[in-house]
Amino acid sequence: MGNFPSASLKSIIGGIGFALAVLTSMPATGEQPSRPLPVPASQLVAAARAQVGVTTIYDPAFVKLAYPGGDLPRERGVCTDVIVRAYRDAFGIDLQQLVHADMLASFASYPPKWGLRGPDTSIDHRRVLNLNVFFSRKGQQLPISRSPVDYAPGDLVTQELPGGLPHIAIVSDTRSQDGTRPLVIHNIGQGTRVEDTLFAYRITGHFRFGPLANEMGN
């Protein structure tokens, strides 16, 4: 999700307020905490988890955004907004600006499916397929597997939902009730939530980016 068509269609084919951070960064009932994390991973996961209870609406409408630093009101968004907001809040890294710069440098590397002739700062960073390309070019591209031990807190995972819809999530610092699977933080339709869906859909990409790639390595 978060994979918008052209602005003229005003629809989506896919898909932090830190005032609540203390409450929302705690594991939900039934979640099993993981071992202590490297600082960058802890910061990114906390920034994503702090969106739980703040972003409560899934809103795929195209919105003209300011640049740089543009965003929708925090109560609404799509799966990509979880990632963009987490990186801004945790590290001051603006994916809107970084994706735009990379598309200016190599527009042909990005999917042509929307029929655009050039970058659009309002939407490019909010499309899952674009983020998949960006993280492949600028981050660590990690193996895709069905083994839970291969997915660390703060990792980014792109997925294919039913109907071929693209989606993206952040691996959390907590695990399923039986302790076997890491949960993910995402907005799949009902606002930002922590859920057990890492292996519920086909994984199409697995990445570490920014301080996590530098700190955690492969």
Could you describe the 3D structure shown?
Helix content is 26%, strand content 19%. The chain is of the alpha+beta class and 218 residues long. The chain has a single domain (7-216), classed as endopeptidase domain like (from Nostoc punctiforme) (endopeptidase fold (from Nostoc punctiforme), Alpha-Beta Complex). The longest helix is centred in the middle third of the chain and has 13 residues, at 79-91.
Which helices and strands occur, and which strands form pairs?
Blueprint: H1 21-24, E1 32-33, H2 39-49, E2 57-58, E3 76-77, H3 79-91, H4 95-105, H5 128-138, E4 140-141, E5 156-161, E6 165-175, E7 182-187, E8 192-195, E9 202-208, H6 211-216
Parallel strand pairs: 2-3
Antiparallel strand pairs: 1-6, 4-9, 5-6, 5-9, 6-7, 7-8
Helix pairs in contact: 2-3
